[in-house]
Task: structure prediction
Amino acid sequence: MRTEFEEQLNQLNQDLIDMSKLCTEAVEKAIHALTDKDPAPAKRVIENEQRINDYQSLIDQEAIRLIMRQQPVASDLRFLSAALAMNTDLERIGDQAEDISHLVLQMLDRGYEERELGALNEMAKQAVVMIEDSVAAFLKGDSDLAKKTCQSDDIMDNLFIRVRQEVIEEIKKGSLEAEILTDIMMVAKYMERIGDHATNIAESVYFSLTGEKIHAD
Result:
């Protein structure tokens, strides 16, 4: 019985890995579409959103089935609860990447000119790192990495402030249309939310491993 449980748990882990890869790729493609002034990556993100939704449904079913049929012990139950919470946050990360992609297509339609994105580009890179680290903490059972990911939420908050400052400078120079600057701020806000979801995952992982709650400052 335990062997069967472990096999099903391994499958759940693999599905979470696959889903997290789809999410990180979606974030990367969305920002690449903007930096390269190329609508193709953004369109692929939108097309692939259903795959992320399908994974969410599959993982929910797998985790709930394990809880109901296998009668897991307390540590396993915390692990499965973390998997369910992670699944929800990953799906929302996919939603945010899709929202960014729609904004990018809108910006390109408005004649957005390729430019250095500054802190916005750094936000995208940091978001990917936080997603990867939070999922790695779950798979490796690494509470220290989960805690580190929670603490890195401050980095995202500071980068968002930098984007806002850069937008203000662009307004002063009058180099970009107001609509495009508004879109840039919205992209930054979605990136910040992606960081929040990665932090939520790390908090759930930390609790599943230690039985203690941790919150980003």
User: Anything to note?
Assistant: The chain has a mean pLDDT of 89. The helical segments are 2-35, 39-70, 74-109, 119-140, 143-151, 153-173, 178-210.
